Amino acid sequence: MMLPHAETPAADHVPKDWGPKIIHARMKIGDVYLMASDAPPGHFKKPQGFSVNISVDTPAEAERVFTALSEGGSIIMPIGSTFFAERFGMLVDRFGIAG
Length: 99
Known about the structure:
Layout: E1 2-4, E2 22-29, E3 32-36, H1 59-70, E4 74-80, E5 88-92
Antiparallel strand pairs: 1-2, 2-3, 4-5
């Protein structure tokens, strides 16, 4: 679920260009919810010093997820077989998040 500012009662309280920015996003992963939002004006800082890892059940799913996340980003290590996984790769997605 992704809710932009423009679709809330808060729409009149943010700059016009913030209409499409996300005030609340929620994604269910198993039994856990991951929630996020765009940083409000004046609070954004470029992400650094961390990476996000995703674990999936099959090599085909790993290929699908890696391909989707790498679109518009840059690949650091192409997905492939390693000594610890059938499929592993590293990238920076289009939002600048390393994984």
